[in-house]
Amino acid sequence: MLRSMGVDSRGKLIYISAGAVILASGGASQAFEKNLNPGDVSGDGYMLAYESGARLVNMEFMQSGIGFSHPLMNIFNGYIWAAHPLLTNSEGESFLEKYIPDSMQPEYVMDEHRKHFPFSSSDDSKYLEIAIQKEIRAGRGGRHGGIIADLRHMKDDYICHVPDDCGLHHMWPVARNHMKDKGVDLLTQKVEINVFAHAINGGVCIDAEGSTSLPGLYAAGEVAGGPHGADRLGGNMMVTCQVFGKIAGTNAAKWAGIHRPQRESAAMYPDDRLWEILHRKADTQGLIHELQSVNQHHLLISRNEAGLMQVLGTVERIGRQLAESPRQDAINMEAFRLYCLITASRLMGEAALRRQESRGAHYREDYPIVNPKLDRPMFSDQSI
Predict the structure, then answer these.
(1) Three-state DSSP class for 203?
(2) What is the pLDDT of residues 354-382, one digit of tens each?
(3) Interatomic CA distance for residues 81 and 96, integer angstroms
(4) Cβ partners under 8 Å of residue 169, min gap 6
(5) Quick one: pLDDT at residue 294?
């Protein structure tokens, strides 16, 4: 039997006994300044599972990609690169050439990225995200913090002469009209783009039955780790939700049918330090913003030991500030959200620091190639 506590809409503490529990709380992309997910995707499931003793896996593999960042936020689909948009920094300089090998042309790198949206260190498209993040990190972003993208040449007469093996001819008019409906005319104005956090490929480790290392605890969707490896095809998270959602639900119901919960009084539950976190009065928004900023610069794409140590140092300091902040009577759910983001950031940062290689969505500029010694067969129970 599993026991947990929660807070209802009136701020009242409630206790729940269950034969089985299914985690389906999503990922932790809100740990990053730029992300394409709702505000509640803040690592809740990772924190709850980790502090309950469940095994987590592959937390260093964060799927990310390029998106429009100003004047609105929207995905920057891979097929757009086939038309070779013009990229410049705040000084009006073309910069991609600085980050690619001498034997490569910027157009080749863009052509490689037309094949997929997410960042991957597995092919030469990686130089786009690396270059964009490094220029922004160096303070050469535009007025709104992104890289300036000029798509004004991508008119119909130009697009029709671009070879299309990625859906450009069909999808570009759709995307262009969608943006125009939102008030952005890509054929008359420049925009800014940035690198966005999208989804974590790892999470609470599950087996083929959707079960975690804790008996009676199941997981499905982005919070679950195991269905994906270092890379993940776009759309496969839906498979994780639908397929493992059904599997986890079916097996959790069977487990709960055998392991029936018993009625218990609240007095049987020990005090939980998370209950104390809920009552901390702190500048949660300011601390969340600080955490998002350091993660955006040092945990999202171009990682190195110094940057990851800065992430972990910030995580430790913010966690200490939260724990030492004054106690109040009213419940502060933003304090709980901050605590979840702190925990998820630490797990991701420690995993990224430990993996001294580049593999899939994990790129270490101080270890830029794959280490064959860290290869794992698919479905192996081993993890780094």
Answers:
(1) strand
(2) 999 999 999 999 999 999 999 876 544 44
(3) 13
(4) 159, 160, 162
(5) 98
